[in-house]
Structures are given as structure tokens and as C-alpha cells.
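Table S2 (continued). Query chain:
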Amino acid sequence: MAEIALTPVSYLVLGEVARRGSATPYDLKVAVAESVGNYWSFPHAQLYKEPPRLAEAGLLAEERETGGRRRRTFRITDAGRRSLQDWLSSPDPGRTELRDLGLLKLAFADLGRPGDVARLARAQAAAHRAHLEVYRTLAALPPDAMVWTLRRTLDLGLAYERLVAEFWERLAADPALTPTAPAPPPTPAPPTSTPTAAPTRPARDVPGGSAGDAVASPGPQVVPDDVAAEGGGVG
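Corresponding output:
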């Protein structure tokens, strides 16, 4: 039996095989996608590579079909079960691993374009709401459809997705993130013009001008003395 270093995926495989009694790599892929794959991300190709490695170390036993698709079925051994139990009983002082692309983009969004954060927040809120509905569907399954330990992880998953969806929704609704169009420049007022008096025609110095001609008003008249003495004047 070869001594190998075990990783979290190693224990994931041991746990799934132990829970199912036996499993093919494809069985593991389906089971993980419906359970721990919701919060433990890794390349699923490892589910095809890890069981043979564990079998070489004596932690799994392998059976292969002699015909047809020659599927490989794995069962946990006593050594594999002890290794799994030792791992489960050991304390885990490590931090929670989180790889959230939305949060990574948000961290650098001040370097982006106006409106990027609001669009990111709306998309993230919709995605987490959709995931929350998946969890609610799983939570509505009959009690015997899921072991109690997986149901406890589902409880946390529900709370997490609800919390994260609400975070992004609040961010999307923040008015400070909505870009405002620049105010249009003020329209210049039309120039004010001083009314110009209509031109007048020069006064005629001869009688009989045509209608509309301006006529100069007569100046003061001088009356001869002999006419004034007789009481005459201008009639």
C-alpha cells in the first residue's frame, strides 16, 4: 500500500463512496453536483483521477466490469474509513475559502466605467436569487430525502444566498451608483434690440406735397406795424 498525501478532494471522494456504499466516478460527479459542489469548488475531472489514486493507496477497493463500458466501481476499505474518521475528528483552524468573482470585480470597480457597479450588482443579485430558489427547492424535499448533516449545510446555504442577494440588491439601488447625464449648457438668451424709430421724410418747403409727406410746423409769424395798428393779423 503506497503512502500518499491526502487533499480535501481525497476526503470528499472517501466520504461520498462511504455514504453510497459504492460509486463510479460518474456517480460521484452527479452526487457532488447536487450537494457539496454548491459550496466546494474544484475541477470535476479530479473525480475521475482521485478514486484510482486512493485505490492504489489501499483506501478504496476497485472493481472493473469485464465487458461493455468496463466501468470502474469503488468501495471504501477499512483503512479508508479510518482515514476519513481521523480527518473528521481533527480540528480545522483554517480560514473559509471564498472565490467570488463578483466581489473581486467590486474591489477594483473604482477603476472602471460609470455604471459598471450598478450593472454588476444587478447581475449578481439575480444570480444569487436564482441559486436561493434552488436551495429552497432542496429544502422542501421530504426529510428522508437528505441526511441531516447535508440538511444543516443547506440551512447555512439558504442564509448565505439570502444575505448575499440582499447585499447586491442594496448596492444596485444605491442612487450614488447611477450615472447622471451632464447638464446641458445653458441656452444663450436672444440679443435684445433697441426699437428704431421709423424714418421720416424731409419736410417739404413747397406747398402741395403728396399725402404722407411730413410738413414742418410754421415758425413764429411777424406782423407788420401798419397792419397791427388797424387791428389786422393773420386770419
